[in-house]
Design goal:
Blueprint: E1 3-4, E2 6-11, E3 17-18, E4 30-33, E5 37-39, E6 45-51, E7 57-64, E8 66-68, E9 74-76, H1 82-90, E10 91-94, E11 97-100, E12 105-112, E13 121-132, E14 151-165, E15 170-182, E16 185-196, E17 200-207, E18 216-223, E19 229-235, E20 246-256, E21 259-270
Parallel strand pairs: 5-14
Antiparallel strand pairs: 1-4, 2-3, 2-14, 4-6, 6-12, 7-11, 7-13, 8-9, 10-12, 13-14, 15-16, 16-19, 17-18, 17-20, 20-21
Length: 271
């Protein structure tokens, strides 16, 4: 699966802030695959970047630390804890800057150098692939009154890189399933819990007897180790909106090398 670049709108006097939706970038759109990396501290892997824009684009690769909040969003870490410091120190990757012609792939090699004596567990960083805007000739500013700002669009993709050491395991649970309205549309909300020494990552499915396809489904749902519960909302398939009542089954399933594994399952009644 590829991740598409998202715009970061940056005031020249302010930090970068992540925008909410992907758009075609004037400096070139970026596709990244895979969108999630798991390392074992022994074998490395590669990340493939591909510029699908019409112009040559340059990207800088950096490591970031982010923590998940109970609503599932990620916040930037300002004061890292010991585990986060260790995670950042062990990640090795190259190159750290790439220039891509249109439709030209480039691989980024990534590995983890685990220090001797590091405790077993899960360690995570996030890799940011950020476009570097093309330099433009300086021009004299037009006369203005009062405060003015200059906006520069910057495009980037962030993916998690997870290092797992030792024989780790996790369990999950589902609770408080209900049909609610979000942005004027019906969704199914639930609490997804996690226990154990690793994160979970999978797909939430809501099925109903008599329907050949899921009533609602959402993929890429993670519960990272810094939290033990998060709130999840799953959009209801518009084709089945009229059937979104009564008994349903809710499952949280995870893809493994041997197939799909059900981490949690529960029955609920939608009203």
């Amino acid at each position: 699966m590829f991740a598409r670049s998202r715009p970061l709108l940056a005031l020249i006097t302010a930090p970068l802030a992540l925008a909410v939706s992907p758009v075609q970038a004037g400096v070139g759109d970026l596709l990244v695959a895979p969108t999630r990396i798991i390392l074992d501290g022994r074998r490395g892997t590669e990340i493939i970047l591909n510029n699908i824009g019409d112009d040559v684009a340059t990207y800088r690769v950096t490591v970031e630390l982010r923590r998940m909040k109970p609503d599932g969003t990620l916040e930037t870490v300002t004061i890292p804890n010991a585990r986060e410091v260790a995670a950042e120190a062990m990640i090795l990757y190259a190159p750290r800057k790439v220039t891509l012609p249109p439709n030209q792939p480039q691989s980024i090699r990534i590995n983890a150098r685990v220090p001797q004596g590091l405790a077993d567990g899960e360690y995570r960083v996030h890799l940011l692939f950020r476009a570097i805007p093309e330099a433009r000739p300086a021009s004299a500013p037009a006369p203005t009154q009062g405060l003015s700002f200059s906006l520069t669009p910057v495009y980037g993709v962030t993916i998690p890189v997870i290092v797992r050491l030792g024989n780790l395991s996790a369990t999950a649970g589902i609770a408080n399933v209900a049909k609610v309205s979000e942005a004027g549309k019906p969704v199914i909300a639930l609490d997804l819990s996690r226990a154990g020494d690793r994160s979970t990552f999978g797909e939430v499915r809501v099925t109903k007897a008599g329907l050949a396809e899921p009533l609602a489904i959402a993929g890429g749902i993670a519960v990272y180790t810094e939290i033990d519960k998060r709130r999840v909302t799953v959009p209801i398939d518009a084709r089945f909106a009229a059937q979104a009542t009564g008994p349903v089954t809710v499952e949280y399933v995870e893809k493994t090398p041997t197939g799909m594994v059900t981490l949690a399952s529960t029955s609920a009644v939608l009203r």
